[in-house]
């Protein structure tokens, strides 16, 4: 099976030894995206709303580079620093994705890279 590495300046560069996304077996696997502004390399200021919107922008940048769209996403995993943000993220998520919504998991974690409040990884069909 061949793999396709996706790398774009429309999303933040990897902050470790990983790829932004890998295409393999008819799917695109996006590494978890945190709310880094690709232009500055910094976490966007603000609360969960601003950070979630930046994560969605980063995801869109990678999907666009791969020639895909939000409608190709089949699975998401959301990592929240505070589970109390669950309802707020749900509202933003509902505005980003359309029905039928992707399958999803959401978990609270004790910390995220660079002190971010949210991280989202996705799987899309190619």
What would your notes on this structure say?
It contains 2 helices and 6 strands. The protein has 126 residues and is of the alpha+beta class. The chain has one domain (3-125): RutC-like (60s Ribosomal Protein L30, Chain: A, 2-Layer Sandwich), CATH 3.30.1330. The protein is globular and about 40 Å long. The mean pLDDT is 96.
List the helices and strands and how they pair.
Layout: E1 3-6, E2 21-24, E3 27-33, H1 48-65, E4 73-80, H2 86-96, E5 103-108, E6 118-125
Parallel strand pairs: 4-5
Antiparallel strand pairs: 1-2, 2-3, 3-6, 4-6
Helix pairs in contact: 1-2
Structure in a nutshell:
The protein is α+β, with helices and mostly antiparallel strands and 126 residues long.
Q: What Rg is obtained from the alpha carbons, in whole angstroms?
A: 14 Å
Quaternary structure classification? single chain
Sequence stretches where pLDDT stays below 50 over 5 or more residues: none
> What's the helical proportion of residues?
10-25%
Measure the end-to-end span. 14 Å
Largest sheet: 6 strands, mixed
Percentage beta strand = 25-35%
Shape: globular
Secondary-structure element order, N to C: EEEHEHEE
CATH topology descriptor? 60s Ribosomal Protein L30, Chain: A
**What's the CATH architecture name?**
2-Layer Sandwich
How many distinct helices?
A: 2
Write the CATH homologous superfamily.
RutC-like
Instruction: Give the strand order of the largest sheet, numbering strands 1, 2, ... along the chain.
Output: 1-2-3-6-4-5
Mean pLDDT: 96
Secondary-structure class: alpha+beta
Number of strands: 6
Number of domains: 1
CATH class: Alpha Beta
């Amino acid at each position: 099976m061949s793999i396709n590495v996706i790398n774009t300046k429309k999303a933040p560069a990897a902050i470790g030894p990983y790829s932004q996304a890998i295409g393999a077996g008819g799917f695109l696997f996006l590494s978890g995206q945190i709310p880094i502004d690709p232009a500055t390399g910094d976490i966007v200021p603000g609360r969960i709303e601003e950070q979630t919107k930046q994560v969605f922008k980063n995801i869109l940048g990678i999907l666009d580079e791969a020639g895909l769209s939000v409608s190709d996403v089949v699975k998401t995993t959301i990592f929240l620093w505070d589970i109390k943000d669950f309802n707020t993220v749900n509202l933003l998520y509902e505005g980003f994705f359309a029905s039928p919504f992707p399958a999803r998991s959401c978990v609270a974690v004790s910390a995220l890279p660079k002190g971010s409040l949210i991280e989202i990884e996705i799987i899309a069909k190619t």
